[in-house]
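Appendix C reproduces, verbatim, an entry submitted by the partner laboratory led by Prof. M.T., so that reviewers can inspect both the input and the predicted structure.
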Amino acid sequence: MVVNQLLPTLSYGDAVSKSALEIAKVLSDLGIENAIYAENIHPKMKNYAKAAMAIPKNQPVIYHMSIGSDLANWIPDFRNEKIMIYHNITPPHFFLGYNPVSEQLCRVGRDQLHSLKDHFDYAFADSEFNRQELEEIGYAKTGTIPLIIDFDEYLATPCAKTLNKYKKEDGYVNFLFVGRIAPNKKQEDVIKVFYYYNKFVNPRSRLFLVGSYDGMERYFAELKTLFEALGLSDVVFTGHIPFDQILAYFHLADVFLCMSEHEGFCVPIVEAMLFDLPIIAYQSSAVPATLGNAGFVVSRKDYKAIAELVDVVVNDKAICDRLAHNRKMRLQELSPERAKQMFIEKVGSIFNLEVK
């Protein structure tokens, strides 16, 4: 038996692509022949995938649904088991006026999500938030399988140049948010919280906004205008950077602040747990479920109050210790071993897979 995976893009470093690669490893470990097929393949990933046009239609397929694609229209043509893994699709209104291509792809993706509800044998989601959406649309057989995140890759050596540029011991409190610069991520709200903290709580502070702004240049320009208007100088936009530099910013950070208004899972929250960072996040979409009790969830964007909360989580030892304990417990629940076992139990039962 061969089990194939199909997705629009196999990129380098994004959560959906990593999910496909981890699933491929699990299938291979079980002795199941498998392959990844994608329409767009990053040059660094050319050895990990085949052209989508070559995918056999008479073999089981796992389709990763995260954006609109012509590939989704092929699903009814597959003649064996058809499984969706739903990573969620950003509501298109977030991109209105910023990127018409992204807006259209998300709009098409949501239309396809509805039209395909009777064409998949099973639909799994990587968060309960995503699964509930599938159920509301009318998917009959749904389940939740957390993303398989390779914790060990975060043990790699961070970029020394970045660590030396912003020394951990310089007395600054470093805010961090990791995620592509995009309107749904609401980096403007992170900047506003940082403004109150920097101006009224602790001027020896800086903000790292780690993520690419390719395709979102207009939104990026608005963010730059905002922090300049607020008189802030210690705001660092990294743009697209290598993984070792991302690791360095996690090592430098003192608090992880997420104000995003739409996340299907939010891998950076798990990454922040791995670096034992205090986490404050806005109560939105899948964020509260991913975070659990490993950090603070805020229900209102009261920038001043959140800035004062940052001061508490950074300086109150009792709270810091409690949160550190909670993070360890939550990481056990999100461990790659547990996620792999859930994948084997739920997807494996469809194909009668057994752990060797």
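The first strand starts at residue 2 and ends at 10. Additional entries are available on request from the coordinating office.
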